Amino acid sequence: MTRRSDPESSRAHRTRCPTPESHATGQTTVPLSGERQHSEPTLLALDIVHPLRRRIPLGPRPLVLGRDVELDVRLLGDAVSRRHAQIDVRAGVAAVTDLESRNGVYVDGIRVQQGHLRPNGVLRIGDHVAVVRQLEANVSASFTEHLPGMWGSEALLDCAQLVATVAGTVQPTLIRGESGTGKELVAHAIHSRSSRNGPFVALNCAALSPQLLEAELFGHRHGAYTGAQGSRPGLLRSASGGTVFLDELGELSGEAQAKLLRVVQTGEVLPVGADRPVRVDVRYVAATHRDLPKQIEEGRFRLDLYHRICGVQIEIPPLRQRREDILPLFQLFVRKQLGRTPSLGTMLVEALCLNQWPGNVRQLEHIASAMAAVHGARTHWRLPELPRELGVTQDDGQASLPATSGSGRPKDMDEETVRRALHSHEGNVSLAASELGVARQSLYTLTRKFGLRPDAFRRGKPRER
Q1: Which residues pair with 288 in a beta bridge?
Q2: Exposed e or buried b per residue across 34-71, where buried means at least 16 C-beta atoms within 10 angstroms of its C-beta
Q3: What is the Cα 192 distance to its own chain's centre?
Q4: Helix 415-424 / helix 440-450 crossing angle, nearest 10 deg
Q5: Which of 68, 366, 367, 414 is the most buried (most CB within 10 A)?
Q6: Is 340 exposed, middle or buried (0-12, 13-18, 19+ CB in 10 A)?
Q7: In angstroms, rounded to a whole number, what is the distance separating the alpha carbons of residues 243 and 285?
Q8: Who contacts 299 (Cβ-Cβ below 8 Å, separation ≥6)?
Q9: How far is it, in rounded angstroms, from Cα 463 to Cα 465?
Q10: Pairing of strands 268-269, 93-98
Q11: Which residues lie across from 73 on neighbouring strands?
Q12: How distant, in Å, are the alpha carbons of 175, 252, 254, 349, 431 from that of 302?
């Protein structure tokens, strides 16, 4: 991808930093990494996530995108027209216009002639998939330093800044977020950046046994109860000098809440069978996906414990609100499994970015691991490789992309998969076959089998139903 290097363009984007690749090719782009840099105020940007990661600042000057070397933004690829699309920003609102391209412009999975680019929306132009970002001006924060493993979207900015702020304090901290967003990673980040030399001890509150609650938390003396052989310090004393991570805090029973409150208030634990309390020096970090204020109103969570344990609150946004993180995280999980990253088809990348991921990062990791186990021998993954159970949905009641079926073999392809590929590539059989991972002649055989005419999917022709 390149930008035209005329004087006006240079002045408008003089804060951009060249990547190592740009020195070799003459391209000038902003690298997408964990490090945010000082820049002039830029409200919107286009984060290209596939096939190469690039950031294109969007300003008041219209940008024309396509293959032509004279355009503002050059996009390379067989599916890109010479003049493919134009992006205009007026009053902070971005709009894209299809410049009569062959393969179309897709906004949130829907082909448009003109369409608005909302923040966190997904744009596909030819072989390129991008996420629209709303940026904050003059901000500098190192995501890779403060939140390792969570990647670096602007949606994590508040989270990263709070981690950096509270890590050096002893303030109890509550991490809120949906299941699978990475709450334990944030807790680890707080502990590792603190000055505490003790261990990080994670406690799953939902798994605490009511019968053995005190023994698990506070420890026990030898012979304190039947089966108590030897003495154990308990989880809280094991974390002395370090951090106790109370995962799923909202699942604690009323009895457990009362016992934990006493420890937090006094800083002492009484091991089962002991006659004297023992001092503990721990820092508490808790996490929950529950609405604790609502649970307090309903009488299911203690208000006094809430005030004791929730000194600072950190909110982790769900994965669907930081779509530019989806692809790098997916590739990271695949690389952990295979030791390499296969190349990915454009429609597969778009489907990953459009999914709502109700299970967040944990679900994404599960999907990546499952695909690596089943398709690890392949060097290129396409849309049919997505698991059948992965529904691809969108916000605001827009049309959805159904989960794909088939395995890349002609005999396993269903009509909907073939129809979607032909529609996406405007009846171009070669591109559709490449995306589906089948031979061109095999796709022609399938179109005859399902009664589909490729030319009916081309611009200006009536659509197949």
Answers
A1: 176
A2: bebeebeebbbbbbbbbbebbbbbbbeeebbbbbbeeb
A3: 23
A4: 120
A5: 367
A6: exposed
A7: 7
A8: none
A9: 6
A10: unpaired
A11: 3, 65
A12: 18, 10, 8, 45, 60
Q: The tokens of 224 are what?
A: 């304190």
Q: Is 401 exposed, middle or buried (0-12, 13-18, 19+ CB in 10 A)?
A: buried
Residue labelled with tokens 């010479």: 82
Radius of gyration for the chain, computed over Cα atoms and rounded to the nearest angstrom? 27
How confident is the prediction along the chain (465 residues), in pLDDT tens digits per residue?
444 444 343 333 333 333 333 333 333 333 333 334 444 445 799 999 999 999 999 988 999 999 999 999 999 988 999 999 999 998 888 999 999 998 899 999 999 999 999 999 999 999 999 999 887 654 444 445 556 666 667 778 878 888 889 998 999 999 999 999 999 999 999 999 998 999 999 989 888 776 667 777 887 665 556 555 657 777 888 888 999 999 999 999 888 899 899 899 999 888 776 778 889 999 999 999 999 999 999 999 999 999 999 889 999 999 999 999 999 999 999 999 999 999 999 999 999 999 999 999 999 999 999 999 999 999 999 888 888 766 544 443 333 333 344 445 666 677 877 887 887 777 888 878 877 777 888 888 888 888 898 888 876 454 443
Whole-structure pTM value = 0.73
Give the pairing type, strands 85-90 and 93-98.
antiparallel
Distances (CA, A) of 387 to 170, 359, 377, 407: 45, 15, 16, 9
